[in-house]
């Protein structure tokens, strides 16, 4: 575990002469509304006592945690059944105390997880509801099924025409996954989302996969699940399916017109999770546009084996708890900054319902070309496509990238041809779609891709001393421009920032709410894993968001 004083070391150093008075800083940055607090899973995992529930909520409040997710877990006593009178009483105690303190409560729809089993009560009542997954092989009369590696024969069924069908479990294909995803969307997520919408409830949580952007449309608060060390400092931050999850949720939020998007983070990262990793993972989410963090988890009890159930406790039982409030305040301010603001971004990477390309994304990240993922069906369902690009919700994309798609629906092709004809479509050279779109720019190397992007849209941030380690996000809130700039690497970076926005520049301290004026031409030094917020004000008055 990291020493408790590390938190203080990571805070910006501000010279006293340059500190700006609070009244000169956006007041909601200094003191954001409590709705932007981290909202940890609160593991209810032992005998629940009213006075202990009240005591722990007071402890959360004192450390800058102004909300929580009630999460029944393994360890509850036998008499504390899911939705029993005893559990409802405990929930009422927690909700009443939170209300008194002007805190927020998120209600979890299940005892343990995943959703749908009612803590095992559904199958206990009717075993026929046990979940199974099958596929079939058509057999001719007398033919026996040929099972390849990974297949398992479940049964055979005789058809009236004399043929038979073998029911098997087998590794899935792309087409199979696409079909299953359509069924999940229509028969599960859509029905849940519509019910919640009709009853004035915000459905939040996350789909099964890190790339499942298609099902995010049925959540009023799209989300993802950063668990099992899916992402860590190093290659996993930019490579593989899990590296796409934060942009998956934030892109869905933007394009579907939602206000918030969430991430359940730190689950099963292990007792060796450090404070630096905890802060790094939060910043990894923020710079990708996330604005609702659900730390996994704060433990009601760490008695006996509870200590090792999906560890670690990142709250009251962690070594850094005494100094937690500055971290909580930083998350509060960054969540506020990423909410009700307009992202400045002209680039989108085309994706499928269950596939988000990571290779082109990595190149864009490393060259400070911010982007969002655009699901292909949104081209005709939610967007307008014209000679200037793709317009969807509050976003206007002047360039679209096709990287590694497996399928293009027929409805997408004429729209992409229109973009290609105006020089707004960029396609990976070895893509099977490369020859379909006359006028599209092809790329083979990272330099080719960046050159193609820059021919279509102007860079929003240039580092005069280039670095592949810097990520950024540019948003407009009121008349102010904010750049969230994050050194994702464990090495120092010194550079100058060239941006197209004119105005007075300030560094805002996310931990303290203070600010310091800076000049346009001064060097900027980023410590390892340091996140900075640049504010540019006195520009011009923009329309209200």
How is this structure best described in words?
- The protein is α/β, with parallel strands linked by helices and 545 residues long.
- It has four domains: 243 residues, TIM Barrel (Alpha-Beta Barrel), CATH 3.20.20; 40 residues, no CATH class; 114 residues, Rossmann fold; 75 residues, Immunoglobulin-like.
- The chain is built from 13 helices and 29 strands.
- The strands form eight sheets. A seven-stranded antiparallel sheet has the order 1-27-26-29-23-22-12, with helices on one face. Strands 14-13-18-19-20 form a five-stranded parallel sheet.
- The longest helix is centred in the middle third of the chain and has 25 residues.
- The relative contact order is 0.12.
Quick rundown:
With 545 residues, this protein is of the alpha/beta class. The longest helix is centred in the middle third of the chain and has 25 residues, at 174-198. The model is unreliable at 1-18 and 540-545 (pLDDT under 50).
Helix content: 25-40%
Low-confidence stretches: 1-18, 540-545
Strand percentage: 15-25%
Structural class of the helix and strand makeup? alpha/beta
C-alpha end-to-end distance: 42 Å
The side-by-side strand order for the widest beta sheet comes to 1-27-26-29-23-22-12
Could you say which overall geometry the principal axes of the C-alpha atoms support?
A: globular
Largest sheet: 7 strands, antiparallel
Rg calculated over all Cα atoms? 25 Å
> Which CATH architecture of the largest domain?
Alpha-Beta Barrel
CATH topology of the largest domain: TIM Barrel
CATH class descriptor name of the largest domain: Alpha Beta
Count of folded domains: 4
Mean pLDDT, nearest integer? 90
Secondary structure tally, helices: 13
Beta strand count: 29
């Amino acid at each position: 575990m990291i020493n408790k004083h590390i938190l203080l070391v990571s805070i910006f150093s501000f010279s006293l002469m340059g500190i700006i008075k609070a009244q000169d800083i956006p007041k909601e940055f200094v003191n954001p509304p409590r709705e932007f607090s981290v909202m940890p899973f609160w593991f209810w995992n032992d005998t629940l006592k009213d006075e202990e529930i009240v005591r722990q909520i007071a402890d959360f409040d004192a450390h800058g945690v102004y909300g929580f997710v009630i999460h029944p877990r393994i360890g509850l006593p036998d008499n504390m059944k899911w939705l029993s009178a005893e559990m409802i009483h405990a929930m009422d105690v927690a909700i009443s105390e939170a209300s008194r303190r002007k805190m927020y409560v998120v209600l979890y729809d299940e005892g343990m997880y995943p959703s749908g089993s009612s803590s095992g009560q559904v199958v206990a009542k009717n075993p026929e509801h046990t979940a199974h997954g099958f596929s079939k092989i058509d057999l001719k009369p007398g033919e026996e099924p040929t099972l390849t590696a990974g297949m398992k024969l479940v049964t055979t069924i005789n058809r009236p025409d004399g043929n038979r069908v073998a029911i098997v479990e087998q590794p899935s294909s792309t087409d199979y996954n696409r079909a299953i995803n359509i069924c999940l969307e229509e028969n599960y997520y859509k029905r849940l989302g519509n019910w919640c919408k009709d009853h004035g409830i915000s459905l939040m949580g996350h789909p099964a996969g890190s790339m499942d952007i298609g099902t995010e449309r049925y959540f009023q608060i799209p989300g993802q699940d950063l668990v099992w060390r899916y992402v860590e400092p190093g290659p996993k931050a930019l490579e593989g399916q899990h590296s796409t999850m934060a942009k998956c949720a934030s892109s869905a939020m933007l394009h579907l017109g939602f206000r918030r998007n969430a991430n359940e983070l730190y689950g099963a990262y292990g007792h060796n999770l450090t404070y630096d990793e905890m802060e790094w993972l939060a910043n990894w989410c923020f710079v990708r546009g996330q604005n609702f963090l659900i730390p996994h988890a704060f433990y009601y009890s760490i008695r006996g084996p509870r200590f090792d159930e999906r560890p670690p406790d990142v709250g009251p039982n962690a070594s850094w708890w005494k100094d937690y409030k500055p971290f909580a305040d930083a998350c509060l301010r960054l969540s506020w900054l990423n909410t009700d603001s307009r992202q400045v971004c002209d680039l989108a990477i085309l994706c499928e319902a269950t596939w988000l390309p990571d290779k082109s994304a990595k190149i864009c990240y490393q060259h400070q070309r911010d982007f969002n993922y655009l699901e292909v069906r949104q081209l005709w369902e939610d967007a307008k496509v014209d000679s200037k690009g793709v317009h969807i919700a509050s976003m206007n994309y002047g360039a679209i990238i096709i990287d590694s798609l497996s399928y293009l629906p027929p409805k997408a092709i004429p729209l992409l041809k229109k973009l290609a004809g105006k020089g707004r479509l960029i396609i990976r050279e070895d893509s099977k779609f490369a020859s379909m779109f006359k006028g599209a720019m092809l790329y083979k190397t990272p330099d080719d891709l960046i050159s193609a992007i820059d021919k279509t849209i102007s860079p929003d941030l240039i580092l005069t001393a280039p670095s592949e380690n810097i990520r950024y996000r540019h948003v407009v809130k009121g008349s102010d421009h904010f750049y969230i700039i994050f050194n994702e690497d464990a090495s120092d970076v010194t550079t100058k920032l060239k941006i197209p926005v004119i105005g007075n520049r300030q560094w805002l301290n996310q931990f303290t709410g203070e600010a310091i004026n800076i000049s346009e031409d001064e060097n900027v030094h980023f410590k390892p894993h340091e996140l900075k917020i640049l504010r540019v004000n006195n520009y011009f008055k923009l329309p209200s968001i």
